[in-house]
Automatic annotation (TrEMBL):
Family membership: Belongs to the short-chain dehydrogenases/reductases (SDR) family.
Substrates-to-products reaction catalysed: 2-hydroxyethane-1-sulfonate + NADP(+) = sulfoacetaldehyde + NADPH + H(+)
Subunit structure: Homodimer and heterotetramer.
Listed name of the protein: sulfoacetaldehyde reductase (NADPH)
This protein's pathway: Organosulfur degradation
Organism: Vreelandella glaciei
SUPFAM superfamilies: NAD(P)-binding Rossmann-fold domains
Superkingdom of origin organism: Bacteria
Sections of the chain in a coiled coil: none
A GO term, aspect molecular function: oxidoreductase activity, acting on the CH-OH group of donors, NAD or NADP as acceptor
UniProt-listed Pfam families: adh_short
Keywords per UniProt: Oxidoreductase
Protein EC: 1.1.1.313
Length: 253
């Protein structure tokens, strides 16, 4: 059976992806920082498929390299890496944000993703044809909006890194995709607002955001495309989300 390594499997897209790939019989390597959630997911899915859980902070390059370069044989060959762990912080304007919040986003969304990619690449190259790296970008990486500051910039990195990887991996059979969702209802906004449940509920209330399962379905689709197809970027929004007009600063009347 093919195996998939999912970062950030303790919540949202990563957890739904674990459930989706398990349904198709894939072996699962699941990572995240919250051990109790990893254990619960393993308990849920290990009747269906082989599950390896690794409590891991993607920012810790040594721990990432150590864990991924020592995967048990049973979980090889590695067919798919889903670089999903990530977060937004501080929805306030840039000039009001604590520097630490910017660092946390850069360290997680950029450095963490690079750490995991670097560690997993030898395994994916060994698998060759049909292997995939699926990177969670965002519409925020392409479209600016107030309060997007470093979060959007970190996802622009994910897009360009994905494209550049494609160039270097040409001829190896390994595919790379930047999957860029719009508004999706997960714990994302709870994290972004540092635990403000009311703000999170308010964002999703009265509309129809994407659900984690929608993104999991796209991840499974990308990972199981015929081996000669690479989707470079896949941007997905809910029907009830679109762009807005340019903002203009005007003199008071
Ligand atoms: N929801 C949305 O609207 C959108 C989200 N995205 C992106 O999708 C990805 C998943 O987000 P989503 O499922 O919505 O959010 P959730 O907050 O529900 O899940 C985020 C996951 O990332 C993990 N994570 C965060 N920081 C770290 C870290 N330092 N080390 C390891 N794991 C970490 C969390 O696990 P733990 O805390 O246990 O470590 C958790 O499993 C993110 O990259 C996000 O930027 C993109 C577009 C839209
Ligand atoms: O990446 C998250 C989606 S949004 O909040 O930027 O629309």
């Amino acid at each position: 059976m093919p195996s998939v390594l999912i970062t950030g499997a303790t919540s949202g897209f990563g957890k739904a992806a674990a459930q989706r790939f398990a349904k198709a019989g894939w072996s699962l390597i699941l990572t995240g920082r919250r051990e109790e959630r990893l254990k619960a997911l393993k308990d849920e899915l290990s009747d269906q498929v082989d599950v390896l859980t690794i409590a891991l902070d993607v920012r810790d390059s040594e721990a990432v390299t150590q864990a991924i370069s020592n995967l048990p044989e049973k979980f090889l060959p590695l067919t798919c890496l889903i670089n999903n762990a990530g977060l937004a912080l501080a929805p306030e304007p840039a000039q009001k944000v604590a520097l630490q919040d910017w660092h946390t986003m850069i360290d997680t969304n950029i450095t963490g993703l690079v750490n995991v990619t670097h560690a997993a690449m030898p395994l994916l190259l060994k698998t060759g044809e049909g292997a995939s790296i699926l990177n969670l970008g965002s519409v925020a990486g392409q479209w600016p909006y107030p309060g997007g500051h470093v979060y959007g910039a970190s996802k622009a990195f994910v897009q360009q890194f994905s494209y550049n990887l494609r160039c270097d991996l040409l001829g190896t059979g390994v595919r790379v995709t930047d999957l860029a969702p719009g508004m999706a209802e997960t714990e994302f906004t709870l994290v972004r607002t540092k635990g403000n449940q009311e703000a999170s509920d308010a964002l999703y209330r009265g509309t129809s955001p994407l659900q984690a399962e929608d993104i999991a379905e796209q991840l499974f689709y990308l990972a199981t495309l015929p081996a000669h197809i690479n989707i470079n970027r896949l941007e997905i929004m809910p029907v009830r989300q679109a762009w807005s007009a340019f903002a203009i600063d005007r003199d008071p009347t």
